[in-house]
Design a protein that fits this description.
This protein is of the alpha+beta class. It has three domains: 204 residues, Multidrug efflux transporter AcrB transmembrane domain (Multidrug efflux transporter AcrB transmembrane fold), CATH 1.20.1640.10; 78 residues, 2-Layer Sandwich (Alpha-Beta Plaits), CATH 3.30.70.3400; 123 residues, Gyrase A, domain 2, CATH 3.30.1360. Helices cover 53% and strands 16% of the residues. It contains eleven helices and 13 strands. The strands form four sheets. Strands 2-3-1-13 form a four-stranded antiparallel beta sheet. A hairpin with a 3-residue loop joins β2 and β3. α1 runs antiparallel to α7, α1 packs across α11 and α8 runs parallel beside α11.
């Protein structure tokens, strides 16, 4: 074996070992394969952003800001690998795989997380109403809300064990709070969330009596520990800058997803086994080497899926399984060319080199056309059709075909070169598809 072949073989072996290590242990923060909703279960939500009143030039920035806040809120749930992306100009897709707290997730995403402070006033008819607490600052009348909170709220308890949600005003909020609380000493200050009174642990509206002027920080009491913690997390995550309306929801059962994974794994194992069996029976020794290259292909592709990471869906697995059959397509072309060279009287070594050289043009053309189709599918799934299934199919097929071409042209070739001068090559029957009948 030449020095070049030795270096190539070592490189292939290193890639294989790295791929196995990636699949069998956490690498680069990746513990498991990323699975889509149809395989893992979870919830798929689509929100419509209300961009009314926002200048067209700023609409994209507003939607991006909403996505950023949603990501922070989803982190509260501890969901691994959520998918949050823009669809078109005014829609946001949220996919939460493996989640069980569906209602809480929808509440976290949908709420504006804007606390309003209101004061009680009596109208001309003698009816009491809660109206926004306002004050004039720098010549402008402004309402006191949590938009003036610093993003450092926290939950604690007092000496009596009462749960307290502690917040701190920014400079403008401090001015507003000072004017309003000074005016409302010994009067209640109601707290509202999304237009409704914020209820305490006892189910009653929270409206503490103002004891003194508040300019730096304040606290909200009456919430349960869980409510206070969730509220604190939402406030620290930030306020979604635009109203969002849910327009589509799909929930996939984790049990159904697990069943899909089980069937997909079985289909993949059966597919690879059948292809390997065919190659060994039909091409004998060359088929055995192609099967070894197929093992390299499978390990490498799955390692890439884990590291990128690629979100595997049923459509994506379909692209991967399809690429298994295409993985040996190049080997078939090479072996057929080798067979012709052997029939022409060439030695095994010469037939190997000529077979790869003559088959390369056909391999290149067939794979390039597949790559072009994959790129088109991914582009359509990302723009016109806006389909994650289409994107997943195109991406997994592209990766599978790319690795299959490498495994056929490099891995199979280096394995054949290793054995070309071994005693195996003396038995010509092992290189003939017609069971020993050489023309």
């Amino acid at each position: 074996m030449t020095r070049r072949n030795t270096v190539t073989f070592i490189a292939v072996l290193a890639i294989l070992i790295f791929g196995l290590a990636t699949l069998l242990s956490p690498m680069f923060g990746r513990d498991k394969m990323r699975l889509g909703l149809d395989l893992q279960g979870g919830i798929h939500l689509v929100y419509l952003a209300d961009l009314t009143g926002i200048a067209k030039a700023q609409q994209g920035e507003a939607v991006d800001g909403a996505i950023s806040i949603i990501e922070k809120r989803i982190n509260i749930l501890g969901v691994t690998e959520p998918v949050i992306q823009k669809q078109g100009a005014d829609r946001i897709i949220v996919e939460l795989p493996g989640i069980s707290e569906v209602e809480r997730a929808k509440r976290l995403i949908g709420q504006t997380a804007l606390l309003e402070f209101r004061e009680r006033k009596t109208d001309s008819a003698g009816k009491e109403n809660w109206v926004p607490a306002t004050a004039v600052i720098n010549g402008q009348e402004k309402a006191l809300t949590s938009s003036y909170f610093k993003e450092n709220t926290y939950v604690t308890t007092d000496e009596f064990g009462k749960v307290l949600l502690v917040f701190e005003w920014n400079s403008e909020g401090s001015q507003l709070s000072g004017v309003i609380t000074e005016r409302l000493i010994n009067q209640p200050l109601g707290i509202y969330l999304s237009g409704e009174p914020l209820l305490g642990d006892d189910g009653r509206p929270i409206a503490p009596i103002v004891q003194s002027k508040i300019t730096d920080r304040g606290q909200i009491e009456g919430l349960s520990l869980n409510e206070a913690q969730e509220m604190s997390q939402m406030l620290n995550a930030g306020r979604i800058p635009i109203p969002l309306s849910p327009i589509y929801e799909q929930t996939v059962s984790p049990i159904l997803g697990a069943d899909f994974v089980d069937k997909a794994v079985k289909a993949g194992i059966i597919g690879i086994s059948m292809v390997m069996l065919f190659m060994i029976l039909y091409y004998r020794f060359c088929g055995l080497l192609a099967s070894l290259a197929l093992v390299f292909y499978g390990v490498t592709v799955m390692a890439i899926f884990k590291l990128v990471p690629v979100t595997l869906t049923l459509a994506g697995l379909g692209g991967f399984i399809l690429s298994i059959g295409m993985a040996v397509d190049a080997n078939v072309l090479i072996f057929e060319r080798m067979k012709e060279e052997i029939w022409a009287g060439r030695t095994i070594g010469a037939a190997v080199e000529a077979g790869f050289k003559r088959a390369w043009a056909a391999i290149w053309d067939s794979n390039m056309t597949t790559f072009i189709v994959c790129i088109i599918l991914y582009w359509l799934g990302n723009t016109v059709a806006e389909s994650s299934a289409l994107k997943g199919f195109g991406l997994t097929l592209f990766i599978g075909v790319a690795v299959s071409m490498f495994s056929a042209v490099v891995v199979t070739r280096v394995l054949l070169r290793i054995f070309v001068n071994s005693p195996v090559t003396k038995n010509i029957k092992l290189f003939n598809i017609h069971f020993g009948k050489v023309k």
